[in-house]
Amino acid sequence: MPGAARAFMVFGVLSALLGAAPALKAQDRVPIEAVRAINTARTRSVKINGGLQVYRPASCMFATAALDNPCLVSSDSDGFVFSFMGGPPAWQERDLAPSLETEIRISPDGTIVDELIYNGPPR
């Protein structure tokens, strides 16, 4: 291992041991099913709306699927429901109005689109 890489690794380990890097608490961890679900929902919305060249989902769909995510409508034994706006690339950064709204239900394991509830102009 090159010296610089070894030094970086040792620094990272020491930082973690000394508490420089915040430890992730068990209650802060997002279940893997929720991570899969937001990824599945985002991927499907991009696909059905023409691809990343013409469409971007809201930034909350690129964040964690934690319970406080504004795109996560519900998370229960029936799965995950996400509702979010979208538009052309950089629509949020340019403060443009969204051109699409998507509401989608994902399976409890986060891998399957159970239902595309809505995909059209903002309601």
Features:
123 residues; alpha+beta; 25% strand
Task: Provide structural commentary.
- The protein is of the alpha+beta class.
- The protein has one domain.
- It contains 2 helices and 5 strands.
- The protein has helices at 3-18, 32-48; strands spanning 56-57, 72-76, 79-87, 100-106, 113-120.
- Strands 1, 2, 3, 4 and 5 form a 5-stranded antiparallel beta sheet that branches.
- A hairpin with a 2-residue loop joins strand 2 and strand 3 (79-87).
- The radius of gyration is 18 Å and the shape is globular.
What is the number of beta strands? Answer: 5
Report the principal-axis shape.
Answer: globular
Report mean pLDDT, rounded to a whole number. 86
Distance between the termini: 56 Å
**What is the string of SSEs from the N terminus onward?**
HHEEEEE
Please give the domain count: 1
Structural class: alpha+beta
User: What radius of gyration results from the CA coordinates?
Assistant: 18 Å
Q: Major sheet, described briefly?
A: 5 strands, antiparallel
With helices defined by DSSP (H or I, 4 residues minimum), what is the helix count?
A: 2
Helical amount: 25-40%
Strand share of the residues? 25-35%
Residue ranges: pLDDT <50 for 5 or more in a row?
5-18
